[in-house]
Structures are given as structure tokens and as C-alpha cells.
Amino acid sequence: MTESLTPAQRAVGDFSPKLVDLTDNVLFGDIWERSELSPRDRSLITVATLIANGSTEQLVGHLRMAQQNGLTRAELTEVIVHLAFYAGWPRAMSAVTVAKRVFEDQQNTEQENKS
């Protein structure tokens, strides 16, 4: 049953159904589907904004989504380096720690799937 739940439903569905509704239907159902920007561009903007705001909890899922939307690990790492000078060194260091963990987890999963 939990496999059919959206990430928002799994995270806060029992606590804030309205936030789940807005996340699933407005943010991801409308905003992310608009044709004026590609999903790749939206991911790049979102990752950069999350880093600049220090929102590392949300960064985990969006780094994964960014890769699904066509951004490479090298590009995402470069975003962090670039933002060190615009958003601040501590935020970049926090983001690189998160990215390193996400990329290592993905690499481990890929290796397990090959076995």
C-alpha cells in the first residue's frame, strides 16, 4: 500500500492532508508540468534555490529528481561549487555533504542491481 503513496503522502499525509494536496496537485501536478521550462531546468533552479536557502532536507529528493530529469552528478556538483560564492560557504559545504551521500547511495544501489 505504501508503494502507491506519493512522497508528500508518505512524509506528511497523516499530519497535513492539505499540504499533500497542494504539493501533489498544484506544485507537481501543475507548476512542474508547465511547458515554459523543461523539467531539467526546473530541477536546476530548484536545487540551486534549496542550496541557497540551506534547505538540505528537501535537497535529497530533488538531487535524485534532478538526475532523473537529465542533470549529471558533475553538473550538480558544479552548481554547489558555484553557489559557494553566491549563497555562502557553509551552505555549499552542507549541500556537498548531502550530495555526496545521495550519489554514494545511488552508486551502491546501482552496484547491487548489477549483482
Automatic annotation (TrEMBL):
Residue ranges occupied by any Carboxymuconolactone decarboxylase-like domain in the UniProt entry: 17-100
UniProt-listed Pfam families: CMD (PF02627)
InterPro entries: 4CMD/NDH-1_regulator, AhpD-like, CMD-like
Organism listed in the record: Microbacterium foliorum
Name by which UniProt lists this protein: Carboxymuconolactone decarboxylase family protein
Entry's transmembrane regions: none
Gene Ontology MF: a single term: peroxiredoxin activity
